[in-house]
Amino acid sequence: MKKIFILLFVIILTTGCSMYNIVRLDDKTIQEIVDLVLKDKKKRENVSLDGYAYYLPKGFTLSEKRETNSILYYNKSKVYLYVDVVSYYHKAPNVDFTVSQDSYYSRKLDINGLDGYLEITRIDSGYFIEYMYNYAKIEAIINMKDLKVAIADFSTILRSVTYKDTILATLIGENILDYNEEVFNIFRPKREEGSFLEYDESYEDDDKNNVVDEDQLPIDEEIQ
Asked: In angstroms, rounded to a whole number, what is the distance separating the alpha carbons of residues 224 and 221?
């Protein structure tokens, strides 16, 4: 029975259907959700940028995309996605992460040969999430009621990041990409820098005219 449940969970995730009407995530721990999603090796993508692509689940809208980062909206919350193509290209060493006993949840990840970390900190407006995996990182502030669903969706996005080695070799080798913007060290949690994500409470009114309908995202062929 357990195997059937896990299989159903994975099938729903990878087909892009809304799993939340079928699977009760509140019965699963955060660790169980992360393990179930990240251990699935099937890849999909529907957003492509220079040198990499990723899959954006239903419920997300893409507000802004640049060479190495995207701003997403999820249940009216801003979600920041950073993709470190330089570290990937140079095969940077493993994440040096120390689990925090003071955080709501803190865990170093090593799944499918890829490492990272998930740290969740309780703050006044909800939960501050830092989720790094597969040379990409998500930062967001999420309401309590959305926490487990968000973790499942964030896991799906990070797992889906696919790097285009041939393109990156050309772009990085010839310095075509602009890396003069603010540098985000995805390998270190914010607590080590002494500050949290700068959160704009007026997000509900900002950039609404720039939000891209999720149905209009560029869709690529599914990776086999």
From this structure: 9
Tokens standing for residue 152: 């499942």
Q: Which two tokens stand for residue 128?
A: 């501050």
Q: Angle formed by the axes of helices 30-38 and 2-15, to 10°?
A: 60
CB 81 within 8 A of CB 138: yes
* CA pair distance 138, 132, nearest whole angstrom: 6
Give dist(CA 162, CA 221) in Å, integer.
Answer: 13
Q: Spell out, as residue ranges, where the chain has pLDDT lower than 70.
A: 1-24, 173-224
Torsion (CA) 33, 93, 168, 46 in degrees, nearest 10: 0
Q: pTM for the full model?
A: 0.74
- Best CA proximity match to 23, nearest among 40, 2, 5: 5
Task: Return d(Cα 57, Cα 155) in angstroms, integer.
Answer: 10
